[in-house]
Structures are given as structure tokens and as C-alpha cells.
Amino acid sequence: MSCSLVDTFTKMLPGSIQITGETLSGAEIKDICDSLKENSVRLLSIRGCQLSDRDFGRVCRGVAESHSLAQLNMNLGVVSTINRTKHLADALKTNRSIQTLFLHGSPLLDAGLVTLNTALSTHPSLVSLDLGDCMLGDEALRLICAMLPPDGAKSGLRELTLSANPSITTKGWARLAIAVAHSSQLRVLNLDYNPLGDQIAGMLAVAVASSRTLEVLDLEGTGLSNQSAQVFLEMVENYPTCLRMLVLAENAISPELQQQISDLLSEGEEDDDKEGEARGSAAIPTREKTAWIPHSNSHPQMVLLTSGLGESLLAETEM
């Protein structure tokens, strides 16, 4: 008897099903669903895979029933219609175990976020969400900000990726900056390849200075100049923050300014590491990535991505 794709990938990494860019047969979908129902899967990745609407619904029902699934990766257009978004929303309303959800490169639009909102905002375990390149606008961002509750409120996201959503306006980013400033839990924020510019970067600098939790901010390829870098430099020099990593690559910023900021953050990180060793705390993981490819011309690119959570799985992920 021939070995299925699911069997192959499960043997390679127990507790994990990772399939990329394949056309999935009904038999393979059955294997995935059976594994989910048996609670033997912690990571399910079907990024860039082709499957029928019926089979997508079957996978979602398996996700709903699973008590073991911690990471779900449907990057690269798997959630391609509003009906699929509804199936996923229904699954997330029932599931209680997912900590990390990847939907990068899904054409959700604001309507898709409206559909997912209740399931995402009330999920008891979800702490890491990737909505990069999902064609989101201000309405979607308003809903996302509600997943970053202020101090003393309910639990919320610890890691958020909103890369490459160019339809979001200054008003939307301003709303996010306010939410970040007051969030009681957000540690990692990836905004790379959005046309932010210096004005929005200034808002984000204020948010970082106010935040008690934010440790990683990715602003790669966001249209910044030395003006933004100078603001961040002065912030790091003069104000105590939790920030440990600021990504400014692919901007019109001088290497000297970037190095100055990096050096100051490194000094702070060394001090924090010494304190962390005394307390037994873990280091903050980083996200490796490649340059963004526009939604309409997306091709799989292999990167290494971690949700930034101590309990999470490390997964090979395509953006």
C-alpha cells in the first residue's frame, strides 16, 4: 500500500502535518481529519494547497473537534472565499486549543474579518495571529484593535502580523498605535511592507515608548527616512522601554543610524538577559523572513517562523 502525503509528513515530525502547495485528494483529507479527531496533531499546515470547498469544510470540522491542535497554518490563499471564511469561523468558535493562526496571503478583505471577528476575539487560547497580505482596511483594523485589550482587561494577542495591507489609512494606523500603547500583552508587532511613512512611524514611536510589553517591532520596507530613525533613536536613548528589536531594513535610513539604534537596543537586551537569568526567563525568539511578494503574484518562499511563544511549535512556514 502506498504511503500518503499525510503519513509521510507525520512520520517526519510526529504531531505535525505540514503539506505545501499540493492538490489534496479526498483520501488525504480523510487522513487529516482522522488525525485531528484522534487528538494526535499539534501543528496542521496546508499552506498553498488546493482542495475542494467540501473538503475544506471537512477540515474545519476536524479543527473544531480537535483538543490538541496548537498551530493552524492556512497561508497562501487556502481561505479563498467568504464561504470558507464562514466555515473557519464556525470551527474557531468550537475549538479551544489553537494558540497560533496563520492566514497570510488570504483575500479576506474587511468582510472576512467581520465574519471571523467573534470567533477570534472570544477564542480562549489564541495569542498569535498572522493577517499579513489579507487585503485588510480600516474596518478590519478596528476589529483587530479590540483584540489588544488595555491593562487589566481580558487576555489578548501577544503577537500580531499585519504585513503588506496597503489599504489601511493613517486613521487606521493611528487607532492601532493607541491600542498598542495600552495593550497589556502584545510583545511582537510585524508591520513590514506597509506604506507607513514618517508620520505614522512617529505615532508608533510614541506607542512603543508607552507600551509596557512590546519587545519586537518590524518596520522593514515601510517608506521611512532618517527622520523616523532619529525619533526612534531619541526614544531609545532617553526613555526606558521593553523594546529589544526594531527592524528598519529596506528603508531610506542611513546604516549609521540603524547601527546606533541596534547598539542601544543590544545594550538594553544584555541588561535584560542578566536580569532574566536571575529570574529564569526565556529569550525572545525572532522571525526570519524574506521580502514580501505582492498578493497577485505570490509564489511560495520558505522562511522559518515561530509564534514567539514559549509553548509553541517551531514551524517551517511560507509567506
UniProtKB/TrEMBL annotation:
Record's compositionally biased regions (Acidic residues): 266-275
Record-linked InterPro entries: Leu-rich_rpt (IPR001611), LRR-containing_regulator (IPR052201), LRR_dom_sf (IPR032675)
Renumbered residue ranges of the record's region Disordered: 266-292
Key words, A-Z: Repeat
SMART domains: LRR_RI (SM00368)
Descriptive protein name: Leucine rich repeat containing 73
Taxonomic source organism: Oncorhynchus tshawytscha (Chinook salmon)
Organism taxonomic ancestry: Eukaryota, Metazoa, Chordata, Craniata, Vertebrata
